[in-house]
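Because discrete structure vocabularies remain unfamiliar, we reproduce here a specimen of the format, pairing a chain with its fold in token form:
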Amino acid sequence: MMSSDDDPTQIAQRSPLRWASRFAGGAALGALLVALPLSYGSPFSLEPIQIAKAGFVILGCGATATIWGQAVINAVIESLGKTGL
């Protein structure tokens, strides 16, 4: 008899949720990267090119975290920890 941890249907059900949470974590990281220059007073205008660049960074970070998973998030957190912030 299989335990609930060995149930293949639960693994299939958790996979989209895991991918979505990885993407959300990466996108949040990308949003942080976009927000850092704004916190230091760097001028940011709402031109379409600037919005497209910010969206590309956010979506790129989300896709990277989805593909490589927790390793990317751990590496970024470790790097941020070394900065002393």
The chain has three helices and no strands. The mean pLDDT is 77.
